[in-house]
Amino acid sequence: xxxxxxxxxxxxxxxxxxAISSTxxxxxxxxxxxxxxxxxxxxxKVLSKVVLIVALPALAFKAFMQDIDAESLAEGIEVLIWGIxxxxxxxxxxxxxxxxxxxxxxxxxxVLTIFGSTTFFGIPIVGAIYGAEGILYASIxxxxxxxxxxxxxxxxxxxxKMEVGNIKxxxxxxxxxxxxxxxxxxxxxxxxxxxxxxxxxxxxxxxAFLRIDQTAPWLFQPMEYLARLASPLAWLAxxxxxxxxxxxxxxxxxxxxxxxxxxxxxxPLLNIAFLxxxxxxxxxxxxxxSLGTIVIMMATPTATVAAAYAISFDRDALLASNASLLSxxxxxxxxxxxxxxxxxxxxxxxxx
Length: 352
What we know:
It comes from Virgibacillus chiguensis. The chain has 352 residues and is mostly helical. 76% of the residues lie in helices and 3% in strands. It is built from 16 helices and two strands. Helix 4 runs antiparallel to helix 5, helix 6 (118-158) packs across helix 11 (230-243) and helix 6 runs parallel beside helix 15 (304-312). The mean pLDDT is 85.
């Protein structure tokens, strides 16, 4: 199939087109509502908290409520390995990327490049395109992100050693708790106490008692409703945040423009290059869903926590704010392009 045919196929796939249009339209709606002051300056923060504390944990846990097989387990392990390896690679590569910058500015640019908004920006888009399978791999991929964000990211920006409070934030975060709990159930469901349930077709099956999608639908259904809130609320919050910022100063900041190019274009390209090399050499082979999930997660704008570190520790806070704004705009523009690129690459025989 030619590249032109792949592009045509992508734009005629209603699932992909709907996911892209939903993302753009709801972000624009949030932007419009903030500009018209129907959303006040607190709405974006409130929506973000609801997404991070309630909706995304429900989405992460729900993704693991599915049967496991040898293929999906192997895929999950490879995603976990790469989710840790890529941050080590980015820590090393980000240094030469910003050699011309010194001191706080270089440190800030490096941390902002390494850590994107994978949770808040990436997972909702992955879920819209790849469904439960994509969210499952995204949640596993994010384990490495959380480890490095709350360790390396904090130490680099604060100049201090790791604090107990930061370790607690890393492991007591609702999304991390939901991810590890769901991951445990998913992996060990065959070894947990079993309960006999009746399927929709009338057949009986034995499932782990913690598979609440089968054993406690009355509990699973509210979680499913909350999980569905993640994408629209996250996109409204992004739009509301953009609607509260003045663009002119940020658009004239060449450093922020250079950073946005690196974050949204170069970092995903590096992932594709490394994963392609690993696939060709049979060291690490990922499916098209895993590949798409990883690329979308790495094409996300500045992580909120990373920007907060820069502001809290006074490490070029203005740069962090401008970079966050420009990278968000760049990501909104380029995510549809990356989806097309992913579809073209996924058609290559090196990916399963």
